[in-house]
UniProtKB/TrEMBL annotation:
GO terms for molecular function: 5-methyltetrahydropteroyltriglutamate-homocysteine S-methyltransferase activity; zinc ion binding. Residues 277-304 form a coiled coil. It comes from Ignatzschineria cameli. Signal peptide: none annotated. This is Methionine synthase. One of its GO terms (biological process) is methionine biosynthetic process. The keyword Zinc-finger does not apply. SUPFAM superfamilies: UROD/MetE-like.
Amino acid sequence: MKKLLPTSTAGSLPKPSWIAEPEKLWSPWKLEGEALQQAKRDALLLSLIEQEAAGIDIVSDGEQTRQHFVTTFIEHLTGVDFEKRETVRIRDRYDASVPTVFDAVSRERPVFVEDAKFLRKHTKKPIKWALPGPMTMIDTLYDDYYKSREKLAWEFAKILNQEAKELEAAGVDIIQFDEPAFNVFFDEVNDWGIATLERAIEGLKCETAVHICYGYGIKANTDWKKTLGSEWRQYEESFPKLQQSKIDIISLECQNSHVPMDLIELIRGKKVMVGAIDVATNQIETAEEVAETLRRALQFVDADKLYPSTNCGMTPLSRTVANGKLRALSAGAEIVRQELTQ
Ligand SMILES: [Zn+2]
């Protein structure tokens, strides 16, 4: 029988201090050339060992080989000029200097496939691999070529599909698309956001997930959250159509957030990665706190479809805190697993 409540993380894990400055988002690499390539592999292996030691059931690369969850993927594509930068509003929330699309975008070589093969070789556990979603990719660029968010999203969806198929062939069990933009651009989500996501998973036999969150615990995000009121109902906009979509798993944040838990009812039938770990605080949850969040979620999701997880990535946290949180996640899931099988 399949293990109930398999645990995983929503995304990134902290990097060791010898490869990038710790507790900092998008921290630049400390090494270069061959030394950096070797160090990335070492960091990936270490992240795997720490996840396994903490009892995480579905493991990942901890995003150890990427500086940024979107731009590292885009850096490998043609048609984007990283020298030519423009300032744009990201997620309608904060300004950032981003690269420019100046020509047709294409993927001339695999991006993460070698990393995935490396991870596969070192673990027997199921692997989940995160890729940026099409809408979040276009929201992190200045488009001087297609002049249409939708057109560029369809191009990225095709490219993501090529990468996803090779990741699947490399032995990845679940491919996750990160779409924080789904919590912001509701009309676009329903017009073409979910459709482009389905294009990205076309023909895949492995499981697929979409991660929709309120972001890392950075100031621009915590300031934004303060404007959202006492009930965060953003998921209400995308969930009905996602419930009808071909995506298998939906990843959302719950711990310490103002998301009304009953919104999960809107995706009944889907597997749900419930964020039971807050990534915006250094306070490590107790196992009982995690268990309580999972018990509440169980009112709206069947036990065999509940995947305990983190709210988002943990890159900006210290390794000690992140490891503590991984252990709390495992311990909390185990409490509820025992209750379910009694
Ligand atoms: Zn996230």
